[in-house]
Amino acid sequence: MRLVTTVEELRAWRREAPPTLGFVPTMGALHEGHLDLVRFARSQNAAVVASVFVNPLQFGAGEDLARYPRDLAGDREKLAANGVDLLFAPAVEEIYPQGFTTTIDVGPVGESFEGAVRPGHFRGVATVVGKLLHLVAPQRLYIGQKDAQQSAVLRKLVHDLAYDCGVTIVPTVRESDGLAMSSRNLYLDERERRAAPSLHRMLRRFVELLKAGTPFEIARTEAANVLEAPGTLDYLACVDAESFAPLAALRENCFVIAAARFGNTRLLDNVWLPQ
Length: 275
Ligand code: PAF
Hints:
Blueprint: E1 2-4, H1 7-15, E2 21-26, H2 32-44, E3 47-52, H3 72-81, E4 86-88, H4 92-95, H5 114-117, H6 121-136, E5 140-144, H7 148-160, E6 166-170, H8 190-195, H9 198-211, H10 216-224, E7 231-240, E8 246-247, E9 254-262, E10 265-273
Parallel strand pairs: 1-4, 2-3, 2-5, 3-4, 5-6
Antiparallel strand pairs: 7-8, 7-9, 9-10
Helix pairs in contact: 6-7, 9-10
């Protein structure tokens, strides 16, 4: 696996790259969920590019960018072992040189839920992924389903700006107790970690109740009881998978989404009902 850190080196590699290229953008601290994206990309493309870049633009003022876990040496080993051809790991100034002011805002799809709790977050995500897609020019982009709203934002980005690139949403990888894999799980203490899998159980219960015909608000209240202390619920909702507009019932191509706080850590999870 080749490691490059500059736009110039990436462009030089890209000029000679095989015809089908899969791209997995990450912020590093890689776990099995990321490696699953890489394996998907590996199975569908002649070459795979991954990026490791902790993107300052998607962190809000109160969010601790400095505390975000970083392990480039470990990430490098994992990516090489899973068949990545090129790792792009730029410094912040390489992506946002002095005087950088251009940003990408995809509109309403990024304004509710996570976008409301973290103003500017999806502008940061769309801007960095927009720039990376422009540089890597892959045929396919691989994104995890766990961050459902991010997946909707990025599909909208690719569609609206007409990137010549497909978007593959890869199912969430879970721990044996059902907890969705996430770099944020590292922040949980023992009690929080024990309670965290109840987030997914709550989502499954909500879907089960709705499928059984329970009225929406009654189902939501009953399902919310499944969340275990010290978890506190931020939201439990049903949304259109493309626009992220709230729905009052299940329907084709929707996400049932939830966010909960465990101490200082916010965890997200969802169930996707494509049909
Ligand atoms: O999901 C992530 O790790 C990040 O939001 C992404 C897509 C790599 C953009 O920085």
